[in-house]
């Protein structure tokens, strides 16, 4: 009997609580009028939406909450102000130098992911370097995609020249013809060292050397140095990139009477494309142009300037850079060979048949589907990106590892490994299901009033 009376009393109390929740008290109404109402006073237990939320499993509620949080995060990440502030933080931290913590590396990778730039392979750098691709937001939108990529590649070539030790302060030039505008060219601003040149700092000029787009710096161009490039670009429309250097090795070969000797495969690959020009000082006079055009002709891609330096040309930046590498390697080997032999008379030169065979082998070299110099240039871009230069280069083959098929894949593993692979997911699902059921049971027990739980336990 006492148990029944207690149960009836509990039911009556629950009904009274529900009734009181339907009709808020006068104090509750007064609080609502004053704006001090509690959240519980605004709940209607008879509302279908409220009942639906009560019946909704906890997992679904959690998923919906996470979806709302992701929406807020997406709005923040897609905000132009957030991207600009993030880029400013990364740039300010990079300029301070010193070791970079993992948090800064993560911020930099997030900045590269959010910024409208070309896809690239980005790795953490151990030292502070100025990024090659500094085109962000409105700066990137000001150029066509082809010009953005060309700017990134040309700025990366300047960095490669500097890393190889072939730069000479703010002097010398590497130029490239802009796609779709045969009379427009990109050149370095006269005042920046090669290690400071970025995609946005390059200056666009016309064939006369007049500035079309100054870039992001206050510097102009060295018109005296542009005369040499303009002469070659105007005479050879097939040449779209020129690397002009004053390296010691190339200058030594240019000044020697024997010229470039066939002492290595690198020399054999380019020696038929080499021409010489008797240089008469700094090219600042237009009268030097006809002699330059006559010296390079219509076939040469390497012009050795006696007492001055070298101009290496190509139909693309990749070609020009690869020929530059070949020339520098051949020049260095020739100088070391002459030093070891004590002069050209003591050198052992290959026969004409061997030279012809070497030239033919060099002409056949290269990978299928890759143009001349493209494979080597892409490897150099990976090296720069791996060092944190953020080149912005779009890789022809971004994946270095092929998909694993055949031997070594899970299909060719022993049977016991395959069996474990098949059995593991069901076991995991079973454990997760048990955990969910236990969690739901705990939530159900916790949601019951203590009095009801004690009554149920006593019953």
TrEMBL record:
Residues spanning the signal sequence: none
- Where would you find the membrane-spanning parts of this chain? none
Q: Where is the composition biased (Low complexity)?
A: 1-37
Entry GO terms, CC? cytoskeleton; plasma membrane; postsynaptic density
Q: Which Pfam families match?
A: Aldolase_II
Q: Where is this region: Disordered?
A: 1-49, 400-421
Molecular function (GO) terms for this protein are: actin filament binding
Biased amino acid composition, Basic residues: 410-421
Q: Which positions fall inside the Class II aldolase/adducin N-terminal domain?
A: 152-335
Family according to the record: Belongs to the aldolase class II family. Adducin subfamily.
By its UniProt entry, which PANTHER family does this protein fall under?
ADDUCIN, PROTEIN HU-LI TAI SHAO
The protein here is known as Aldolase_II domain-containing protein
